[in-house]
Design goal:
This protein is α+β, with helices and mostly antiparallel strands and 147 residues long. It has four helices and ten strands. The strands form four sheets. Strands 2-3-9 form a three-stranded antiparallel sheet.
């Protein structure tokens, strides 16, 4: 049998899942992980940051690959989120940060309105690169303002 074997650690979604499982800090973020293995680029992207590949044909640039934005609604991107626990709130209370504690309690009461995405919501891409390709990875701030 000529069975092809894959190293699971080369899958960006696997790396994203493992990394997110270790997060203890409260907050949220979009995320992108890219792994280059020889000429193959594998990407896991969640949210409105992203990438594009610029390639040249007859000296003219074109874009054969571009990530798509992931948004629940306008200006509400998919994002990995870690909501505060009761222990986090207790720490804030002990530090005298009552305003911050009140804001976090308000978020927790409206938990149904908070977008909490997990790494498995990430879009996966696999791209065969060619010599001369340019890869641009950027936040939505770049892609929203540069054309």
């Amino acid at each position: 049998m000529n069975e092809k074997r894959y190293d699971i650690t080369l899958f960006p979604t696997y790396v994203l899942e493992k990394a997110f499982a270790k997060v203890k800090a409260v907050g949220s973020a979009t995320a992108m992980i890219a792994i280059l293995n020889k000429q193959e680029l594998s990407i896991a992207n969640i949210g409105d940051s992203g990438f594009l590949v610029i390639r040249f044909k007859n000296g003219e640039p074109y874009c054969p690959h571009k990530s798509k934005e992931q948004q629940h609604a306008f200006n509400i991107p998919y994002q990995l989120s870690q909501l505060p626990t009761q222990a986090d709130l207790e720490i804030l209370r002990k530090q005298g940060k009552l305003t911050e504690m009140a804001k976090l309690k308000q978020v927790l009461r409206k938990k149904n309105n908070v977008c909490q995405d997990s790494p498995d919501a990430a879009d996966d891409y696999t791209i065969e690169l060619k010599d001369g390709d340019i890869i641009v990875s950027a936040t939505d701030g770049v892609f929203d303002n540069l054309f």
